[in-house]
Amino acid sequence: MMKLEFEGEIQALENKILDHPHQDDLIAFYGSSSIRLWETLEEDLSPLNVINLGFGGSSFSWCIYYFDRVFARIKPSRVIIYVGDNDLAAGIPPEKVLKKFRMLTKLVRMNYPDVPMDFISIKPSPIRTHLLPEIQLTNQLIRKELLALGKASLIDVHNSMLNENGVARPELYVEDQLHLNAEGYRIWKGVVRKHLGI
Length: 198
Known about the structure:
This protein is 44% helix and 13% strand. The chain is α/β, with parallel strands linked by helices. The longest helix has 18 residues, at 94-111. Residues 38-187 form the SGNH hydrolase-type esterase domain. It comes from Marinoscillum furvescens DSM 4134.
């Protein structure tokens, strides 16, 4: 029996969806804590109608596990995903992360065959500099996969977060050097707005 680590958060997301006043043209952001902690998401992507469905320090496996529950009462016009950071940190190699990515995108396509889908590239972070080659390889594999899927694309935040030495810029992160601060989210805001044409 899996320990339902995020049960409380998932229940909160289910309530959030029920309480959301505008279901039309809704863009769903789904994934791990980099989405959950993007507290200014709605404001940053105004005038678009967006909902933040990030939870905990989740992985691909948890996003797959909870997908049907989280999306049971929602018909998004677009799905934007960020996850994978924690998979690589747990020692899962890029090729296996890609398999999990395929499982998650299959769920999106089964439920929403005509809805555009985007994946935010896995970010670098100072505390995980040792994982940079795996992060970059995973992003490359996912980019290639998205091209083959159709109506799917990569939102590349990764390169904007590197300094001239090709490593993560520490000034974009909070004290743990893993999660983003306001400056880091400003970069995400700019890249995502440009990608969505706003």
